[in-house]
Amino acid sequence: MPANRFNGFSDYGVGIGLRVPHYRHILEKKPVVDWFEIISENYMIDGGRPLAVLDSILEQYRVVQHGVSMYFGSAEPFSREHLRRLKDLVRRTKTPWLSDHLCWGSVDGTYTHDLLPMPYTFEAARLTAEKIRRAQDFLEVPIAVENVSSYAEFHVSEMTEWEFLNEVVEQADCGILLDVNNIYVSSQNHNFDPHTYVNSIPPERVAQIHIAGHSKFEKYILDTHDHPVLDPVWKLYARAIERCGPTATLLEWDDSIPSFDEVHAEALKAKCYLEPKTKTVDSSLAVTA
């Protein structure tokens, strides 16, 4: 567990992000890795080295797609060309599920290339859920939405972030990519208890978990993905696994990227939390939206 319908009934372990500085090491050394997560947008092209590398990776490893530009929270409709290219990649990778962020980031065809926080209103939840349903129907693969880190809030919000996430996934009938580092970062920036967030998520909908490092500044902390996972995040991760059961876990390390071996070793620390809990799923703690 939890192999569920939101992760294609797959049973993945601990993965890392497929990043350019590690291409040569992976292709030459062929290290044992449970799975790789790719950024979908890096491979939504017609040819060239990125696709050649991806095809070589696919010959030996399981790959899961993670996107950064679907912008489920933007009011405008999807680009049909974007969805077509994304579906072509889904067929190529055979990803058992696909994830992207619960955020907005585009207006009238102009993309910010950032993951902007949403107003937590019932109307925004309804519109966002409708877009997720349309994408899921077109792509024919389960979608898991990821909670983002945030540094600003809207006065018009009608609920907490975790209540909004639950409202969206229930209406869309989709999965959750639970980023426990993002929860911790937002909790420190907005002064809430991160354990309340984790304890409020419906565990049966969690398809995958993200862990990562962050940076502390005088008045806020920032989701930087540039060093090892810090203790408060590991504690949140432990609680998430306690509630959800062993869940496909991915370490994000996207800046100041060290050697492959260092990144992989940091990711494998997650197994200390996963393996003793192979038979435990705290479904009694499930919370309904």
Structure, explained:
This protein has about 290 residues and is an alpha/beta fold. The protein is built from ten helices and twelve strands. The protein has helices at about 25-30, 50-60, 80-95, 120-140, 160-170, 180-190, 195-200, 230-245, 260-270, 270-275, and strands at about 15, 35-40, 65, 100, 105, 110-115, 145, 175-180, 205-210, 215, 220, 250. The strands form three sheets. Strands 1-2-3-4-7-8-9-12 form an eight-stranded parallel β-barrel, surrounded by four helices. It has a two-stranded antiparallel ribbon with strand order 5-6. Strands 10-11 form a two-stranded antiparallel ribbon. Strand 1 (about 15), helix 1 and strand 2 (about 35-40) form a beta-alpha-beta unit.
Summarize the SSE layout with pairings:
Layout: E1 14-17, H1 23-29, E2 35-39, H2 49-58, E3 63-66, H3 80-93, E4 98-101, E5 104-107, E6 110-116, H4 122-139, E7 143-146, H5 161-172, E8 175-179, H6 180-190, H7 194-200, E9 206-212, E10 215-216, E11 221-222, H8 231-244, E12 249-252, H9 260-268, H10 271-274
Parallel strand pairs: 1-2, 1-12, 2-3, 3-4, 4-7, 7-8, 8-9, 9-12
Antiparallel strand pairs: 5-6, 10-11
Helix pairs in contact: 4-5, 7-8
Can I get a quick summary?
The chain is 37% helix and 18% strand.
Largest sheet: 8 strands, parallel, barrel
Mean pLDDT: 93
Given the helix and strand composition, which structural class is it?
Answer: alpha/beta
Distance between the termini: 22 Å
- Poorly predicted regions are 277-289
Q: Give the helix tally.
A: 10
Q: Please state the CA-atom Rg, rounded to the nearest Å.
A: 18 Å
Question: How much beta, percentage-wise?
Answer: 15-25%
Output the helix-strand order.
EHEHEHEEEHEHEHHEEEHEHH
Number of strands: 12
* Share in helix: 25-40%
Task: Tell me the strand order in the biggest sheet.
Answer: 1-2-3-4-7-8-9-12
Sum up the overall morphology in one term: globular
